User: Fold these one by one.
Assistant:
Number 1:
Amino acid sequence: MVHLSPGSNREPLGPSSNAVNITPLGASSGESVLKPESASAKRPHAAAADDSPEEIESDDDRLFFLTDSCDQIRTKINTFINNGGMKVGEFQRAIGVTASSYGNFMKKRGRDAGEQSSVYIAANAFFRKRELEGHKMPRKKAKKDTDADGKETGKNLDYEVSDIHLEGEDEGEVEIYDTCDEVRRKIAAHLRAPGITQAGFCRAISAQFPESEEKKISSAQLQAFQRKKGPTEGNSSGVFYSAYVFFEKLRVKQGKKKSKARLEMEEIWGDDGGVSRELQRGGYIVMKGSEVVQDRYGKVRQILQE
């Protein structure tokens, strides 16, 4: 390092290679200033090192903080595998567990169900390590339809249900076994999926009406339906019928079993041919000392007031 004092005539003994550049301000002034080299010039690899993710050792204490419940870990495992992070066998080997212990843990249900399992401990450490190293959960890429030339048609094949046919569909009379609130919940969840737009969803459910009806669902109609609350509020809307048909076809396509709530709805509404799509007009005739109530399934009944 060379230091120059004001007014000093001392010259450096030789060229300095590591710290100081002397840059003339002008040919006539004869003055010089010290211009230190930048930190990046001194350490050419420093910036790259700062941007690189931290590598976490497998025995790092932070990996064994149990911040997620058993159900949350199961959700992370399913998301990671379903979105292409690893295959099941690869994941089992990655966390060092057997297929049987993995299967026993994954079939449990409940916040604390499986807290003593080695799968819970190992999977928690696996995901903690990924998070600390800055790795994001993989996201599933939607399959796109292509034409004969290999160009994308814009259709999302994961949600293409045109090849599924339901009883009563040709007449526009598919029996409905979901409440309006349940259909609203399904719509909201579907619209949060990657690649799904409100306009695209409106086109998809419009296609569920018979060709003879030529109905089109608009975004305004969809939003109006979504704003309602109640098991039968919005039952006369075309959104209710067409969205139900779409999600029922999607359930069949995906090979999912009917939920417990769905089976209950079939038992309750089966004799009526499903949930009514008729707009309720007028009131109810009730006995003295009674009141009309609607249960969560949408059924209306009278009860005696206490």
Note: Strands lie at 20-24, 32-36, 144-146, 152-156, 290-294, 300-304.
Number 2:
Amino acid sequence: MGVPFDYAPDRPEHIETILNGLDRYNPETTTVFQDYVTSQCENQTYDCYANIALLKLYQFNPHLTRDETTTNILVKSLTVFPSPDFSLCLALLPPHILSPTSLSTHTSNPAVGDAPLSEAVQKLSVLNALLSSARYTDFWSTLDGDDLYADLVADVAGFEELMRVRIAAVVSQSFTSVERGLLEGWLNLSGEGFRGFVEGVCGWKVQGEEVRVPLNKENEAKGVVVRENVKFDQFSRVIKRAYEQPV
């Protein structure tokens, strides 16, 4: 049985109370949710259900929107890929934020967002697209190639480490062995740092120029035998109808 979508093991009791009551629609709880997002960034926890509740409050109360909090929610959602949380959060943002940066948009409607937020969303969408297409080496080069990315992820403690763990989790579901050079690019690590992460964090084995990934239920090749359970009398009815004369 899967984990419920609204479950978060580290959710505080007062947040749980708000989410389960009518106060989740009360604009006065916006600051409570914003503080909770800050706590998630600092303590490396994650609560998609609460973050979505805050984005919905922003939808109905755009004057309360904080660009920094919105950006942090999107960055946190990247750290749980390949789940669709980033796209889900993106769908709750105003349409003008999702379009390319436009000064005219900002001037005509400054209460509901501005050009910097739109640019941040576009930048983070690029990272999400690279992750979704498993272009991990390009993800790291893009992240390191623009100073704006450093500002966007600065509030999320351990962002790079979290991303390495998620990439490693995806790799473990698909491979039993990987070339060392390829994996170094995917994790953006080399030398002792690479060995320490692969062996100490992941529990894999570095054997020369190859990294061995232990078998698990996802990466183990298994033969699938498909057996049809069709009885003869089912065929007989089909054959009989083929010879019946239409009325």
Note: Residues 115-132 form the longest helix (18 residues).
Number 3:
Amino acid sequence: MPRVTASTLNCKFPTGSEPRVWLLSSGASPIGIALSRQLLAHGDVVVFGTQFNDTSDNTDPRSADFAAFWTEEVLVREGWKNRARAVGLDGRNKGQCQAAVAEVVSLFRRLDVLLCCSSQAIVGTVEELGASSRTSALVRDQFETNYFGHVTIIKAALPSMRAMHSGHIILLSGITGHLGTPGLGMYCASQWAIEGFCDSLAYEVAPFNIKMTIVQPNLEISILTNEITAAPPLPQYTPENNSAPLFRELIGGLLDRIDASTMASNGNRYGHAEAGRFSSEHIVSVSPQLSERMQSQLLAETITALTAVGGHDNPPTRHIVGHEAVASVKEKLKTVSEELEDFVEASCAVDLNAEAESLSQGLDDDTQDP
């Protein structure tokens, strides 16, 4: 099955006199590997953050794909080996984040682009995720990865970027940063939290010529290319008792179809589909197994967007990727605007400026009385 290449994607890169140095917070992820193919082919330098010690470590479920990519492509293609490094990087470990950035700067003298692309998704309603100490722990893990992990690596990179008076931080988020999704509330909350952090950070670091961009692709990008963990369902939230379009049912049906398609195109080498897997009485974790063709098609728009904005002299602060994502965000903004107009009289019922002026006038009148 042919891979998507820079030519088929028609990737466009910002102009520059030197190769850019990238650090990918989750270099062994599908998005990390797919993006790095384009970056290395273009001549850039890529440092892969991984949560396993070396390219042959089999303790991480992604290590096999990354090891194959490293041995069959990075070590073989001309010029790639000298422009690629793998470093241990777990965003939840402050020391590892600082060491990873220090190694990048030591090897390549600078860090131009930091891509924060680590993610995991916790599926369950608010009540389901608070039903036990174990499900509550899932929520904490969600924020450790999707919020605190990004915060830690960004803070580690800032001193070097300030010293260079340049740099570009990219957060790979999703339209869940705009849209609430029933049954995915804690995941959405972690996205809103990190986006609020990055929006504020952008103002703080602008005087140092450090750019900040939030890239928001379709929901499927971050969900289907990372681990998904589901809490046990409560009876009150089953389809029979609750009409809300809960994400558990949507993602379960989608994964069933993906499994069937993947097994058909790969001779069943990915195992058996597990119908209703997210209806278990136990906590269930799944790493979707996408066929190479399916994964390439899924990631194509996002890869094209990242190569276009990464290291740009004047990048967007927020970049929404894909027709569906753009349509969804437009619909949300339309709804917000309509509700604002519906209740604008209530919103502006008390004019504090007018009240202050009236009070001030009253005080002036009092002081003028004999």
Note: The beta strands are 21-24, 45-50, 84-88, 113-116, 121-123, 167-172, 210-216, 228-230, 284-286, 318-320.
Number 4:
Amino acid sequence: MECLKDGVQPLKDLTTSNITPNTILTNSHGPNPRLTFVLERLVTHLHDFARETCLNTREWTVGIDFLTEVGKKCTDTRQEFILLSDILGLSLLVDSIAHPRPPPATEGSVLGPFHTHDHPPLSAGDFLSHDPQGEPCLVLCSISDTQGTPISDVEIDIWETDSSGHYDVQYESGRTDGRGVMHSDKDGKFWFKGIVPVSYQVPNDGPVGKLLALLRRHPWRPAHIHIWMRKEGWDGLVTALYISSDPHITSDAVFGVKSSLCVTPRPACSSEQQTYNVHEGTQVIQYGFVLMGEEDARYLRDEKNREAMARLGKGKWKLDGEEGLPIVDLD
């Protein structure tokens, strides 16, 4: 058989039936076994998709143009590709695979396209939002492990929209509001003052919005507050708290809602008004977060990954010992 240098076969006389194994073979000579594995599975499914749908050149061009427009819409404060991943259900799927969380651990949700890395620091009781039009809200939370032991000094990244349903980065003023970073205290507690979250539409002025319209899908997200928790030795948690009475609670455009993350605000009682210095009529949201230890999460993730490998059947794959991810077995 004719070969080029390094044992690579010459690529000629390729057809719909042999293009896939030849592409996989060509991609299999790199030094990164994880990249080789990912590309092997991507090419396999991508080629099968084209064959199963009888994809034609016009549709392929439309797809390329669509992805190009998605890239053009991305900025430092707006990630259209994350939004695309969200509305296709991929974001939630990836989080569920990477962070399996059986009860009583708190379930994850989607990060969304409007997280930033420059949240201002907050102390207990600070105002997250200064929107005078928003309904005042007191958020009282705790963080513990799966045995109920409080976890102190957890970094908590929090962000929400204003009362009109817009994040601060959607305004040209550049003013930061509705977001901040705080830490749990020695008893695992944290609290802040914000506004009762409102439902809003995901950005629909770009290619993802046009896709939603073509699919006759609405762009609404139910009211929620985003939360991202991190501490060394603990499995990071990206999640959100959703208002249970929201009309879009069962039809979230990005599939982020979990029943266990739904909360019902209630009026602050007189003792809470005094303790936390809030006015009568202020709404209260309470929630207890439960984190998984990093080792427990790793063990569960490895088990799930082994099950995934078993479904692939016998082949030249194995789990990487360092990260526990499927890789090509080069031995």
Note: The chain is about 30% helix and 20% strand.
